[in-house]
Amino acid sequence: MSIEVRHISKSFGNFTALRDVSLQVHDGELLALLGPSGSGKTTLLRIISGLEVPDANPDSEILFHGQSVVDRPVRHREVGFVFQHYALFRHMTVADNIGFGLRMRPRATRPSKSEIRDRVGKLLKLIQLEGFGDRFPSQLSGGQRQRVALARALAVEPKVLLLDEPFGALDAKVRQGLRTWLRRLHDEIHLTSVLVTHDQEEALEVADRVVVMNQSRIEQIGTPDEVFHHPKTPFVMEFLGQVNVFHGRVTQDKIELDDPFVNEADEHHSGSRPQAVYARPHELDIQRESTNGEGIAATVRRLHLAGPIARVLLEAENGGHVQVHMSLERFYELALQPGVAAFVVPKNGRVFDATVAAIRD
Amino acid sequence: MVWRLKKHSVLPGFGLTLGFTVFYLSLIVLLPLTALCLKSTSMGWPQFWETVSHPRVLASCRLTFETAATAALINAVGGFIVAWCLVRYDFPLKRVFDAMVDLPFALPTAVSGIALTTIYASSGWIGQWFAPWDIKLVYSRWGIIIAMTFIGLPFVVRTLQPALEDLEKENEEAAACLGASRWQTFRFVIWPTIIPALLTGFAMAFARGLGEYGSIVFISGNMPMKTEIASLLIITKLEQHDLAGATAIAVILLVSSFVLLLCINLLQWWSSERVRGVA
């Protein structure tokens, strides 16, 4: 089922959580809402679910499959909601948790006890927790609990699945496993899903499309590939990966870099910067010798080689830091050591203040 | 299974604190109660039996337990609503109301007895509305229940408040998303998790009711066989220099309250194990 929200605003007292946000979720897609904390992504999710009511506004609208659901309370919206901290009922067994939604149905539509048991059994199998039905949530690991929470949400056969930072409370290894599993599950059941996360890696890996949010607004909507390689704003560029910012110019066929920005933290997440050129670490190269005075003179400071690529941190003459990623082959070819002098040369870069969004060499 | 009292632990002082606990409980609780029991044995079994099976004694014990249980039940319901309101909602003067809950703790019981008698008497503010229907709130069983309800309220409210504060909002939201109505959410999600606290509060209010003396003697009228509570009967016996008789009744009261409280505690323990989710 498709979801559409139009002109949604929400404020809590003096704090504005959402400012005139509009968004469409296609039928059967997995959409990620990505942004730093306080960007409004969870509020948007809760408004879709009905747990939160948007500010009154004649233009605002929430449509499920083209039908307005603004006046429909949570329990009639048929949404599955998965909370960051699981929100399992601790006095119920795993099986009772999963069957809860079915047991709460009015008698006319409530499945029989044996039907509920069958459904719970199938879901336990789906979440790979067969034989855990009689346990209590406190006897499960975090990852297992979250899978139970997911099964509980799926048991009532919701029209949409909403996940609020579902892996946020889990450790890195479990997170990785669960998100791969979630993606596989989505490919099987094709349930329209919205996932809230502040982890860009998670969003880029799992989602069909990513909505990048910042300061109560949507910055960009696109496929993971689009938002990563063609960011529309400096914020998106910076939020989706490491980035180096330089004073410089981008012309039709040439990128010219001067000094790197010195105090990256101060400038972080500010709006557009005139004459700022953005380059990801893999869009830079290092040369030992400068050809025709090109490149920024810098000294190699730190090397990080534990990984599939070599990560090199350099310090420019003005004290600004530059992060460069390159293949290990290239790294050994350059024979870099901490302390040696080198030149940073751009392969690619972007400016956001001009109409030129990006050029490639 | 081997029982070991001492296990290596990062928290020091187990031996010391256990020693103190045993000593302190013995001194404060066990020793006086043992003395009480020993005193009652001085009268011999037949005489003991005669004393405790006297109709007036039986009537007073029955009255005490019945009224204390009724008052505790009323408090379980009323106190629950008060605690719910104080925890879940914000309203003006909330702090003042919250502080008022403790007043029955602080007031000397004689003061509460006089105050309650004044307003519930047939000429009092509240009593006058019941007088036309020939309902006597004071100098009757109702009076005893009113006094016990008054003094027992803080126990229920104060034990329920932390339990209600611990409720997770997300649990209720999850229930709503799963299609549960508000009533169903309360009945199946909230209720089971607060039962242990409610039972504890009930037990404490009940126990407090059993032991109450000061406020009840003013409001009950103290008619033998009708509105005479057990603790009053004990005082009466003492005034007649019948120390053995007084302790005999006390022992009966003691043993039966202990058994009752033990049962409630077991029930409470069992239900909290369930809530904690331990099979």
Could you characterize the architecture of this molecule?
The complex is a heterodimer of chains A (361) and B (279). Chain A has 361 residues and is an alpha+beta fold. Chain A is built from 10 helices and 20 strands. Chain A has helices at 41-49, 94-103, 113-126, 142-155, 172-189, 200-206, 224-229, 234-239, 264-267, 328-334; strands spanning 3-12, 15-25, 30-34, 61-64, 67-68, 79-82, 160-164, 192-197, 209-214, 217-222, 244-250, 255-260, 276-279, 284-287, 296-304, 309-316, 321-327, 341-346, 348-349, 359-360. A 6-stranded mixed β-sheet of chain A has the order 6-7-8-3-9-10, sandwiched between helices. In chain A, strands 14-18-15-16-17 form a 5-stranded antiparallel β-sheet. The longest helix of chain A is centred in the middle third of the chain and has 18 residues, at 172-189. Chain A is elongated, with a radius of gyration of 25 Å. Residues 265-273 and 354-361 of chain A have low confidence and may be disordered. Chain B is an all-alpha fold. In chain B, 76% of the residues lie in helices and 0% in strands. Chain B is built from 13 helices and no strands. Chain B has helices at 14-41, 45-52, 55-88, 94-100, 103-106, 109-120, 127-130, 141-165, 169-177, 182-211, 214-219, 230-239, 243-276. The longest helix of chain B has 34 residues, at 55-88. Classes of the chains: A alpha+beta (361), B mainly alpha (279). Chain A binds chain B through residues 49, 51, 73-76, 79-81, 83, 85, 87-93, 100-101, 104-105, 134-139, 149, 152-153, 155-156, and chain B through 168, 170-171, 173-181, 184, 188-189, 192-193, 274-279.
